[in-house]
Write a structure and sequence with these properties.
elongated, alpha/beta, about 15% strand, Rossmann fold, about 475 residues, four-stranded parallel beta sheet
């Protein structure tokens, strides 16, 4: 098959795969009821008035932007995504609303920006005066923990975006205590709950929303997707990712200076990425200094004539220095001997960074080749950073969209960016699977171009590739 025909075939496969994804999910977002209350936000109902417009319920976004020339299949309403934004008619009466905000899981740049945006939008745009922060994740709901809720208002949250971490505190776990959590929500008389967290947090949010529905309570549950790994399914990116790449790039540049200043210098940087190598790949593209990028999606061998250590040795012979970026989830199939999970249900990973560090040092010591290896793990520095301007803008808009969605009675949904449009996405669709770097896709191709590393570093690449 010729190269052009093969490429066309691949593009058609991608088109059909995206079409299949559209058809596989029902993107209809649940509502608590009819919206019969006029919004206090004054906007235009049509373009041309010179002011911002309401978003109407007939505005949708397609997941698939690829176009195949010829007859297109009909578009079902359940296969398109509802636009996010303020509605002219809302479900909740602002004076009766009590909103809760909870942050769960690991730290991520931008959490405080989201909290701030939700509070300020509810308070200033809708006139909601009862907003509570739930401390330390879902455990903050549990009566045995005895954590008092934090009253929130614009004065309290005005400057928290300048800080890293989470103003409300966070923990892993507790999300499986669904009954106790909803009991606490009833005692607090919450009208809506905003859950800021990753897929584990949003699974818990869906369970909470289902229990709320079972009890026939009118409480909206809205999620804001938080994962620095950028591995949420369907959405373009999760907040904090751009900041993580920026901070990681600074570290890789430092590792390059260390490596380039030493005899056979090796800079080894471990970045986040449990199952997806987006941070590692994008950091390589941003820094222009990496020679090897090792990610979970692309298996590799250490030993053998086509293994990683062989190619690292060749690199040092040619250029006398090398920089390696490794995602934390790489090599886990070789390193994990006992499967254990943390409080959030995540698989406990082996430390690939220290393993690689020790294995590289031993390899060159056995060959009596002098190297100078500097190993850097900046994970917690990156996670706790304040958001950069790009992420801060994104978080502001996500928080605003979440507030608008909740006031309009949407529930069991997260706010996400799809094809550069803010949408309501059912939680069950967003957590159906994780997004991964495609080894045959454009991002990984460009990463290989940037690093000049082999496409496969396997001792028997032909057999593995078949």
């Amino acid at each position: 098959m010729g190269a052009e025909v093969l490429q066309a075939s691949k593009e058609q496969e991608g088109f059909m795969a995206t079409m299949a994804t559209e058809a596989a999910f029902n993107f209809t977002v649940e509502r608590l009821g009819d919206c019969n209350i006029k919004s206090p936000i004054t906007m235009a109902t049509a373009r041309g008035a010179g002011v911002a417009n309401y978003v109407t319920d007939d505005q949708f976004v397609r997941l698939n932007t690829l176009v195949s020339v010829g007859k297109q299949p009909p578009i079902e309403k359940s296969h398109v995504l509802e636009r996010a934004g303020p509605r002219e008619m809302i479900y909740f009466s602002p004076a009766h609303v009590h909103a809760g905000i909870v942050t769960c899981g690991g730290l991520c740049p931008g959490i405080n920006d989201v909290i701030r945006a939700i509070v300020r939008c509810l308070w200033h745009r809708y006139g909601v005066k009862r907003i509570s922060g739930i401390p330390y994740g879902y455990k903050g709901f549990l009566p045995e923990m005895q954590f008092p809720v934090k009253p929130l208002n614009p004065d309290i949250v005005d400057d928290i975006h300048k800080l890293g971490g989470t103003f409300l505190g966070s923990t892993r776990g507790g999300g499986n205590e669904t009954g106790k959590i909803v009991d606490a929500m009833e005692r607090l008389n919450l009208s809506m709950l905003f859950t800021i967290g990753g897929d584990g947090t949003q699974r818990g949010a869906l369970a909470i929303a289902n229990e709320v529905a079972r009890r026939r309570l009118k409480i909206a549950v809205l999620g804001i997707p938080k994962t620095v790994d950028n591995d949420f399914f369907i959405i373009d990116r999760s907040f904090g990712f751009n900041t993580a790449v920026e901070r990681a790039t600074e570290v890789v540049n430092a590792a390059h200076m260390e490596a380039n200043s030493a005899i056979n210098g090796v800079g080894l940087v471990k970045v986040m990425g449990r199952e997806s190598g987006f941070i590692a790949a994008c950091t390589a593209l941003a820094s222009h200094e990496a020679n090897f990028v090792l990610i979970p999606e692309v298996p590799f061998d250490l030993e053998g004539e086509n293994g990683f250590l062989f190619h690292l040795e060749q690199r040092l012979k040619q250029r006398s220095h090398a920089v390696i970026i490794v995602a934390e989830g790489a090599m886990q199939e070789q390193l994990i001997t006992k499967r254990e999970t943390d409080a959030g249900g995540n698989l406990k990973l082996a430390d690939v960074g220290t393993h690689l560090r020790d294995r590289i040092n031993r390899h060159f010591a056995d060959k009596k080749i002098e190297i100078n290896l500097k190993y850097i793990d900046p994970s917690y520095v990156i996670r706790s950073s304040p958001a950069n301007p790009t992420d801060s803008i994104y978080c502001e808009r996500l928080g605003n969209a979440a507030a608008h969605a909740a006031m309009a009675g949407r529930t069991k949904a997260i706010i996400g960016l799809v094809n550069n449009k803010y949408v309501h996405l059912p939680i069950d669709a967003a957590i159906a699977q994780r997004r991964h770097v495609d080894p045959e896709g454009n991002l990984w191709r460009d990463t290989l171009d940037a690093t000049h590393q082999p496409a496969l570093m396997l001792s028997k690449p032909c057999e593995q590739a078949v």
